Amino acid sequence: MSNVYRDAKWQLRPYQGGDEEGIVALWNESMPQDTVGPELFRNRVLLDANFDPAGTILAVDEAGQPAGFILAVRRKTPIFGADLEPENGWITIFFVKPSWRGRGMGKALLNASEAFLRSNGRKNIFVSSYSPNYFFPGVDKEMYRDAVAFLEKNGYGVLYQAVAMDKNLVGFAVPDDVKALQARREAEGYRFGYLNSAFLTRTIAFATENFGVDWGRAIREGVARGLGFDRFLIATRGEEVVGFTVFGAYDNVAERFGPFGVAEELRGAGLGKILLYETLDLMRQRGSHGAWFLWTGEESAAGKLYRRAGFTITRRFNVMKKAL
Questions:
Q1: pLDDT tens digits along 196-243
Q2: Each residue of 2-18: pLDDT tens digit?
Q3: Domain at 10-135, CATH homologous superfamily
């Protein structure tokens, strides 16, 4: 790699053990609005089952110090069953030291990551909707306009947009109309309560079958690492799970809400509204001053529900794609 992309002052090379300290420092200098710590980087990059040093690419200066970085991923281990998504690859993060921008380093890093994915048979590259260890759902279209323009110049198009939302929980209370709605649904036979052992595997199966393997994984891994059943609410009808919510499932961040979903055929019955408000109340009871999540469609049914509950949009992301 260093023989292909090199100038008199810098060169590219793959990750080497111990690079993470320099990468994290460079990240925080290059993206001060989205700083990370060593633990988060280690957990999402080095401990990812799909980690490959060849796709973890650094640009280093004459002194051997990191000046640019890009992370390209392809599945070596399926997220579910035997599906390795053999045509797909992902770029989950990239950045260049401010003093090195405009000198071809970003282009070289992108070319190297595409070459890595192409050599592994990938036909599509996504930025950056990779499960389970993405940092952002895409590129923040306001904060990183230059990155969006850079990707577009290099053949990437916007696949769709996602939004992050936040809600202040200070003074929050479940509205009376939601309490009345819950009473009506309970009279019809629905039940709302904490997750329990009897419904654990059914809730994981419900999340996986209705919303994807990553949601089932979030429940399974959260419980496995000690996330209490009182961080989950489920809606049931008899022995059937028809909806669920969770908070604190990702990186043990108590104020992070989700995932959250209701059976498609029951949407419109208000079950999601009940689960959402009751979960926000639980979060407030446990001392959270706010609730936030990273990814939903602005005009989706969930996005509209969140806005009606007082969530506001805090970030907009472009999920981007290039066909090789």
A1: 999 999 999 999 999 988 899 899 999 999 999 999 999 999 999 999
A2: 444 556 689 999 999 99
A3: Gcn5-related N-acetyltransferase (GNAT) (3.40.630.30)
**What does 222-284 look like in DSSP terms, one character per residue?**
HHHTT--GGGEEEEEETTEEEEEEEES-STT-TTBEEEEEE-GGGTTSSHHHHHHHHHHHHHH
- Please state at what angle helix 197-211 crosses helix 213-224, rounded to 10 degrees: 150
The long-range contacts involving 55-58, CB below 8 angstroms and separated by at least 24 positions, are 55/14, 55/113, 55/116, 55/117, 56/14, 56/15, 57/1, 57/12, 57/13, 57/14, 57/15, 57/109, 57/112, 57/113, 57/116, 58/12, 58/13, 58/14, 58/15, 58/19, 58/23
Q: Place domain 171-288 in its CATH homologous superfamily.
A: Gcn5-related N-acetyltransferase (GNAT) (3.40.630.30)
32 in helix, strand or coil? Answer: helix
Nearest to 256 by CA among 169, 187, 189: 169
Residue 37, pLDDT above cutoff 70: yes
pTM of the model: 0.91
User: Is residue 98 a contact partner of residue 90, using CB atoms and an 8 Å limit?
Assistant: no
**What is the C-alpha to C-alpha distance for residues 216 and 132, in angstroms, rounded to an integer?**
11
Average pLDDT over residues 236-256: 95
Output the CA–CA distances (angstroms, integers) from residue 203 to 222, 263, 273, in the order listed: 13, 12, 18
Cα separation, 138 vs 144, whole angstroms:
11
